[in-house]
Amino acid sequence: MKLDELDKKLVEHYPEYVIPKSVVRDLKIGYNVPSYVLEHLLGTYADMSDPAKIAGVDTVRKILHDHYLRPDMAEFVKMNLRDKGFFRVIDRLSAYLDTKQDHYVAQLQNLKIKDGVIEDHLVREHPKMLLGGMWAIVDLLYDSNTYPGRPFVVEKIHPIQLSNFIKDSFISRRKHFSASEWIDVIIRSIGLEPTKMSDRQKLFQLLRLVPLAEKNYNMVELGPRATGKSYIYREISPYAFLISGGDTTVAQLFYNISAKKVGLVGEWDLVAFDEVAGVDFKDSRALQMLKDFMESGSFARDVEVVAEASIVFNGNINDDVQTLLKLSHLFEPFPQKMQDTALLDRIHAYLPGWEVDKLRSELFTSHYGFAIDFFSEVLRSLRGDSAVTALDKHYSLGSQLNRRDEKGTRKTCSGLLKIIYPDGSYEEEGIKQVLEFALECRRRVKEQLKKLGGLEFWDTNFSYITKEDKRETYVAVKEGGERALISQDPLPPGVVYTVSMADGRANLLKIEAVVTPGSGKRRASGSTALRDAMNTALSHISAHQNRFLPSGASLKNYDIALQTSQLLGDSYEKDISVAV
Q1: For position 49, what pLDDT does the model report?
Q2: Cα 408 off chain centre by
Q3: Which residues in 531-544 are b (16+ Cβ under 10 Å) and which e?
């Protein structure tokens, strides 16, 4: 690999924290372990500060050869363990409490040990064993005399994660990189090559990291297969837990009353539902507790519990997005009981997975990046910070964003800004780019809620105002905008385009009306003048409804919502009520 300028700069300023990703990729062939495991071993046993003289890789390779085992080697290793009495293994270790015998039982994934002996103090020191397991270097003993029938004994555990992280040392060196360079460093750190990506593709990858850098962040990503939806959480952080479909219980996710133990949301920084279509909450309480937790970061289950885990929903969209938008909505892959507007409204951002490039071989990098065990600690350290003040200094949010819209947008901005500017040296252009992307991702949620819930979620004209010149800018979702201002397709019922003259200039507007069964409610969005114009039209229609409706029908049985989008121009007159 030939070093480029970014490689040289990264090695110069972070020599002790970086590795060439080509080495990781080569090692990963034959060893089915997460990247953070390999990179932890490389960081511990190899010296990569001098690109021309990388040392210690053979040592890591030997450690993997001697101590990491494939599942088909399990019985052979057990034989050696029995003969020698001791073996050190790299494996995924989990544990559970056997209430009948009143002791903990250890399990090792690849070694296929399901009834190992483990002391209580080891479980207390490493509680993640009880919550899905953890990768570790495990010292095992074979003692059939003391434990007849259960001879495999966990003697010592070495968690595979960085033992020492100095945040100030990391942050102080950020100043040597421009924002674009830093983004490329991050992309390379997760194993991808930024020179093969557009700026928008890079934003998608950064957004995937936000749940690891922002407490209680809720995100959804739906899209085709092979785009790396779960790759980030499976490979780069020991603090993320993936639930791969199937039954999900209250005790597993939230709180086990009998064991008096907080579940996954209390022990992990991120809990991701990997195949959301297969998630099944058998206990109806689980869905309500999930709503409470996604809203406030707390839930009640015998006791009031506060936790900080982010929630991510991943899944597949197999249909064309435009077809799905016409026939249904973008939450369609969710199980029916989870297509609940109260739950979905708590999602802060919807990442459009159908836009993300598939992971082709050319997208994986060979260049230098931060070692993943180090980078995962960086992300974790950012969870205690907030960057929303940077946003408030330059911009305010438009009137159509409600409290949840603002919260989601701000949390997305905070997460992205912390990742790009961990030293707090924000750039206004960078803040603007992040803000527009955050608004788009929250608006995508709201647009689908409008399809599901109608009137309550009608305000979707998201915008931001520049404080310096008071200019308001509207932000659209990519999949919802036509190539032309006025679509060539036949307009759906309730949509009309009109022109309003103001100060001798023409202003192009789009008016949308939705009529749903209800109790006669009327709602018009926009400025006071605009609402007055539309209410005038509604009053006229109500007064003359016999001319418009079939005999015996009444508008009292329907709710009507009106929304106007300004496509061209910056003002309008009350005469638009005629168009309504």
Answers
A1: 65
A2: 12
A3: eebbbbbbeebeee
Identify which of 578, 580, 572, 579 has the alpha carbon closest to the alpha carbon of residue 500: 572
Residues of each domain in the chain carrying CATH 3.30.230.10: 482-577
pLDDT of residue 482: 45
Question: Nearest 5°: phi and psi at 97?
Answer: -95, 120
The SS3 call for residue 248 is: coil
Q: Number of helices and strands (H, E) in the chain?
A: 21, 25
pTM over 0.85: no
For 154-169, write each residue's pLDDT tens digit.
Answer: 999 998 877 667 889 8
- Distance, in Å, from the CA atom of 401 to the CA atom of 459, rounded to the nearest integer, reads 7
| Helix pair angle (199-213, 372-382), 10° resolution | 70
Overall size of the chain counted in residues: 580
pLDDT digits (tens, 9 = 90+) for 298-313: 998 878 899 999 999 9
**Phi, psi angle pair for 469, to nearest 5°:** -120, 5
Per-chain mean pLDDT for the chain = 89
Distance between CA atoms of residues 501 and 484, nearest Å = 21
Distance of CA 74 to the CA centre of its chain: 36
Residues with Cβ within 8 Å of 69's Cβ and at least 6 positions away in sequence, in order, are 77, 89, 91, 110, 111
- Rounded to 5 degrees, φ, ψ at 400 are -85, 0
CA distances from 268 to 127, 309, 346 (A): 10, 6, 20
Range 482-577: architecture per CATH:
2-Layer Sandwich (3.30)
Question: pLDDT tens digits, residue range 48-87?
Answer: 766 666 778 899 999 999 999 888 889 999 999 999 999 9
Q: Cα dihedral angle (392, 397, 403, 405), rounded to 10 degrees?
A: -110
* Burial of 31 (C-beta count, 10 Å sphere; 0-12/13-18/19+): middle
What pLDDT is recorded for position 483?
Answer: 47
CB 578 within 8 A of CB 538: no
pLDDT of 557: 83
Provide Rg for the chain, Cα atoms. 28
Locate CATH 2.40.50 in the chain.
Answer: 71-159
State the distance between the two ends of the chain, measured CA to CA, in whole angstroms. 64
**Does residue 521 register a pLDDT over 60?**
yes
Amino acid at 140: L
What gap in Å lies between CA 505 and CA 414, rounded to an integer? 40
Q: Give the SS3 label for residue 422.
A: coil
DSSP per residue over 383-421, as a string? TT---HHHHHHHEEE-TT--HHHHHHHHHHHHHHHHHH-
Distance CA 230, CA 241 (A): 10
CB-hemisphere CA count at 13 Å for 546? 1
| Residue with the two structure tokens 């418009």 | 548
Where does residue 243 rank: exposed (0-12), middle (13-18), buried (19+ CB within 10 A)? buried
Choose the CATH number for 71-159 among 2.40.50, 1.10.150, 3.30.310, 1.10.357.
2.40.50
* Residues β-bridged to residue 471: none
